[in-house]
Amino acid sequence: MKKSENSPIKFNAALQGAIKDTEPDFLAALPMDNAVGAIMALSAELYLLRERLSTLELELAAHHILPEGAVEHHKDTPLQAQTRAEDLAAYTNRILSELARDRIPVSVIHPNVNKYLRQP
After folding, report:
1. Residue 98 backbone zone (phi > 0: left; psi -120 to 50: alpha; other: beta)
2. Distance, CA of 12 to CA of 26 (rounded, Å)
3. 91-118 pLDDT, tens per residue?
4. What is residue 111's three-state secondary structure?
5. Residue 15: helix, strand or coil by DSSP?
6. N or C: which end of the chain has fewer CB within 10 A?
7. Collapsing DSSP states into helix, strand and coil, what is residue 9?
8. DSSP secondary structure letter of residue 113
9. Is 24 part of a structural domain of the chain?
10. Does residue 8 fall inside a structural domain?
11. Model confidence at 8: pLDDT above 60
12. What are the pLDDT digits (tens) for 15-40?
């Protein structure tokens, strides 16, 4: 992918060394259209998963393994409902926290990491 014939876009898609102070900004040069394209591709993949799950439910119902509408009519026990609510809250927090997180690394990488990253 190139900006013009003579100036290629430089993506920082690989770790170049130990992260010691601030995290690298891998997407700084990424055009917004590319980010939107990635979101749309993920949305399409998610829809395909939903469609496949629906087909699986229909097949299970057709073969009398699962009653038709069993998923839609499922009632959680209070413990299951609490577990699902906690899981949803953790999942939502994990996704949305990326929008607000600072650029300080959350882990320490040994300064000699480069010897493990080099190709043989």
Report:
1. alpha
2. 5
3. 888 888 877 777 676 777 777 777 777 6
4. helix
5. coil
6. C
7. coil
8. G
9. no
10. no
11. no
12. 566 666 676 666 666 777 877 888 89
SS3 30: coil
Distance CA 29, CA 8 (A): 11
Q: Which tokens sit at 43?
A: 């949305």
Tell me what the pLDDT averaged over the chain comes to: 79
Q: How many domains does the chain have?
A: 1
> What's the pTM value of the predicted model, to 2 decimals?
0.50
Nearest one of 59, 80, 77 to 68, comparing CA atoms: 59
Give the integer Cα–Cα distance in Å for 12 and 51: 35
Q: Is residue 90 part of a domain?
A: yes
- Let me know if 34 is exposed, middle or buried by CB neighbors in 10 A (0-12, 13-18, 19+): middle
Determine, yes or no, domain membership for 3.
no
Give the three-state DSSP class for 41. helix
Give the per-residue pLDDT at 89: 92
Q: What is the pLDDT of residues 66-99, one digit of tens each?
A: 898 898 899 999 999 999 999 999 988 888 887 7
